[in-house]
Specification:
With 323 residues, the protein is α+β, with helices and mostly antiparallel strands. 34% of the residues lie in helices and 25% in strands. The protein contains seven helices and 16 strands. The protein binds zinc ion (ZN).
């Protein structure tokens, strides 16, 4: 299923003092939550004094489906794309509500701005862009995602090579697990929070580098990308304890999301392959073998690294779903 558009976001520092407006937005949100059974319009919250461009969006967000836990300090100012004026020549977007223009690099194949979300420091632009035409592929990269070891093991059929991507992933997870465990003092809750945040940033960064690498490799090799559909991974049958920790931290959805949007931008098709069998089937001979530690033993008589065999299996399996 090849979709025509992709949503991407870009953030820029706005340099505006929005403290007062953010406070008003929080009050509008509280009002919406408090009157959730009523049909509210911006007139109902006119007394708060927030620009109606913003209060309209805030009422929509909080009126329809109020969040389970409302955190007023996280309230943002949202403005619909139809209420701002993009100027592609000067690389800027005029925001009438603030009577100011912000500089922003428009993405390639820009169609329109869906919305702009302001927090204390940043303006987050949500762009709709057209996807590139689907490339004709010569083969499929088989991407085996790992819980232990490198983030991804990639088989490149056009080169007959196996690449390991994001090799520092396991090290990173281990390192933070150790540091965080050492902060046992209950009074150091803030410190632990900081460590969680830092770990998240490091992993996100690594994910971005890895997914960009895989997509540009696919593009260069004129290959599509095949991934296992690991939606069940978090429910994996009773993994042992250290493994369970990895499973919970495994950012599979983010990885897949990034692969899909970057691939679509580049015209690279992505297929999801039914999981299972990749550790018991020989990718070359298509017969059932067995694994011994990190080695796959094929009954025909050859041996191969289990991750490499899995990546090759995925590369050769027709996907059940294509993005
Ligand atoms: Zn074999």
């Amino acid at each position: 299923m090849w979709q025509d558009t992709v949503i991407i976001t870009r953030r820029v520092r706005h340099g505006l003092d929005l403290a007062a407006d953010l406070e008003k937005a929080a009050r509008v949100a509280e009002f919406a939550i408090g009157h959730k059974d009523e049909r509210l319009t911006t007139r109902h919250v006119a007394h708060i004094g927030l620009n109606s461009t913003f209060s309209d969006m805030t009422l929509r967000r909080y009126g329809k489906r109020p969040p389970m836990t409302f955190r007023r300090e996280r309230t943002k100012l949202e403005v619909a794309g139809s209420k701002v004026k993009p100027d592609l020549e000067s690389h800027s977007v005029y925001i009438p509500a603030f009577r100011t223009a912000l500089r922003v690099e428009f993405p390639r194949r820009f169609i329109r701005i869906r919305e702009v979300v302001f927090d204390r420091d940043f303006a987050h632009f949500v762009f709709e862009v057209s996807a590139d035409d689907r490339m004709e592929v010569q083969g499929w990269l088989g991407v085996d995602l790992n819980i232990i070891g490198p983030l991804a093991v990639v088989y490149v059929p056009t080169l007959g090579e196996v690449l390991r991507i994001g090799t520092e992933f396991y090290f990173l997870v281990k390192k933070y697990q150790k540091i965080i465990r050492e902060v046992t003092d209950a009074r150091k809750k803030g410190m632990r929070q900081r460590l969680y945040r830092r770990r998240k940033n490091r992993i996100t960064d690594l994910l971005h580098k890895s997914t960009s690498k895989i997509v540009s490799l696919a593009r260069d090799q004129q290959c599509g990308i095949r991934l296992e559909d690991l939606r069940g991974i978090r429910r994996a049958a009773n993994p042992k304890r250290p493994q369970r920790i990895m499973v919970q931290q495994w950012p599979y959805f983010k990885f897949r999301q990034q692969i899909v949007y970057k691939a679509k931008m580049a015209g690279v098709p992505v297929q999801l392959v039914r999981p299972g069998g990749t550790s018991t089937t020989c990718a070359v001979h298509r017969v059932t073998g067995r694994r011994d530690g990190r080695t796959f033993l094929c009954p025909v008589g050859h041996e191969v690294d289990v991750d490499e065999n899995a990546a090759m299996c995925i590369s050769a399996t027709v996907g059940k779903y294509e993005f």
